[in-house]
Design a protein that fits this description.
It is a single chain. With 394 residues, the chain is of the alpha/beta class. It has two domains: 17-214 and 339-393, Crotonobetainyl-coa:carnitine coa-transferase, domain 1 (Rossmann fold, 3-Layer(aba) Sandwich), CATH 3.40.50.10540; 242-327, formyl-coa transferase, domain 3, CATH 3.30.1540. The protein contains 18 helices and 13 strands. The protein has helices spanning 26-36, 67-70, 84-96, 108-111, 116-122, 147-153, 156-159, 174-197, 207-212, 218-225, 259-268, 272-275, 283-288, 290-301, 306-315, 326-330, 333-337, 379-393; strands at residues 17-20, 40-45, 59-60, 63-64, 74-78, 99-102, 127-132, 202-206, 242-247, 250-255, 320-322, 341-345, 351-355. A six-stranded parallel β-sheet has the order 5-2-1-6-7-8, with helices on both faces. A hairpin with a 2-residue loop joins strand 3 (59-60) and strand 4 (63-64). Helix 1 packs across helix 8 and helix 6 (147-153) crosses helix 8 (174-197). The longest helix is centred in the middle third of the chain and has 24 residues, at 174-197. The protein is elongated. The chain starts with 16 loop residues before the first strand and ends with a helix. Pfam families: CoA_transf_3 (PF02515).
């Protein structure tokens, strides 16, 4: 039985103090995820413009609408990490933090006088999440690495697109996001271990490794058979039938690769002969005749609308779906029912719809507690206690 959430949930990470020194995507996404579930995230930004994400993609009143997603629930402190006084203040903030998150090139944090070893010596409980292109060790550690490069090195880019054509990117910064999620997992594991040992540790996440970790059987297939998987367009190599098919007014994805599902799909498209074919009873046989199966399914979808195809698939309990645009998402009743279309009121009184909180926790769910901050909006509130303590200590 699902427990009803508290009316005003603080979140399971309430009381956790996080110091974010990163910018753009990977580090800030990890911090955003922790903030969504109650962590108090202090984001340190350069006074001269702040995080460049503030000005990425489409702007509303001079600020990226993406910023309202990536930095919700955070506080902003404007400090120049190149300034020794700012470095001293950050060291004091680190003494009070449970987690520090950074995604600079390896060595940059040390260059700011903020080496994790020194910070952890002063505060043994501190957990430091370091996200970089290639990790903190190895021959490539000093190379600059963005998510797109990591997607290529991790094996994903080679698989994307159509056979014989230049590989394409997936359309979002998936390498950065995967690294951020791996970073969150690492932080939560380190927090769990700290509960037993009382000690923090460094969580080292490389962008390319986060991508590579999601590449399924890519490496063992090469190890066992010398097989180098290549791009396959919209199909799922080695699993059939699963593909995108053209309808009269669009395209649909059909996943008929389970044995019983396949038989139901073939009956739905009036191909009982294929449903009864013993050679197609399992995936191995279907993969060998995948072109024939795709042609049969495509011939059926081509004469129908997307809605007609999906209605028939639903009736037969065959997985299928339309290819959603942003407009489809914004008007979808299931997204709405799952609280994934979250309306927030901006400081100017306008309403902006942003993605809801993931994952869903039954008793201590995440929440949108405050909008993304203006640059340096919380500098005085955060630093005043430090300065007062310094003054009291003489």
């Amino acid at each position: 039985m699902q427990t009803s959430p508290d009316p005003t949930p603080a979140g399971p990470l309430a009381g956790l103090k996080v110091l974010e020194l990163g910018q753009l995507i990977a580090g800030p996404f990890a911090a955003k995820t922790l903030a969504d579930f109650g962590a108090d995230v202090i984001k340190v930004e350069a006074p001269d413009g702040g995080d460049p994400l503030r000005r990425w993609r489409l702007l509303k009143d001079g600020t990226s609408v993406w910023w309202q997603v990536q930095s919700r629930n955070k506080r902003s402190v404007a400090l120049d990490l190149k300034d020794p006084e700012a470095q001293a203040l950050v060291r004091e903030l680190a003494l009070e933090a449970d987690v520090l998150i950074e995604n600079f090139r390896p060595g940059a944090l040390e260059g700011f006088g903020l080496a994790p070893e020194a910070l952890m010596a002063a505060s043994p409980k501190l957990i430091v999440l370091r996200v970089s292109g290639y990790g903190q060790t190895g021959p490539y550690r000093d190379k600059p690495g963005f998510g797109v490069v990591a997607e290529a090195m991790g094996g994903l880019r080679h698989l994307s697109g159509e056979p014989g054509r230049v590989p394409v990117r997936v359309g979002v910064s998936i390498g950065d996001t995967l690294a951020a999620l791996h970073g969150v997992i690492g932080v939560l594991m380190a927090l769990h271990e700290r509960g037993k040992s009382g000690r923090g540790q460094v969580v080292d996440v490389a962008l390319y490794e986060a991508v590579f970790n999601c590449m399924e059987s890519l490496l063992p297939e090469y190890s066992a058979f010398g097989a180098v998987r290549g791009p396959a367009g919209s199909a799922l190599p080695g699993i059939a039938p699963t593909n995108a098919y053209v309808c009269r007014d669009g395209q649909v994805l059909v996943a008929g690769n389970g044995d019983s599902i396949f038989r139901r799909l073939m009956k739905t498209i009036a191909r009982e002969d294929l449903a009864a074919d013993a050679e197609l009873a399992d995936n191995t046989g279907r993969v060998a005749r995948v072109a024939e199966l795709d042609a049969a399914i495509g011939a059926w979808t081509a004469t129908r609308t997307v809605d007609e195809v999906l209605a028939a698939l639903d009736a037969a309990a065959v997985p299928g779906g339309r290819i959603y645009t942003a407009a489809d998402i914004a008007h979808d009743p299931h997204y709405a029912a799952r609280d994934m279309l979250l309306p927030v009121t901006l400081d100017d009184g306008s309403t902006l719809t942003v993605p809801g909180i993931v994952p869903k926790l039954s008793r201590t769910p995440g929440s949108h507690r405050r909008n993304a901050p203006a640059l340096g909006a919380d500098t005085e509130a955060v630093l005043a206690p430090l300065r007062a303590r310094r003054k009291a200590e003489g």
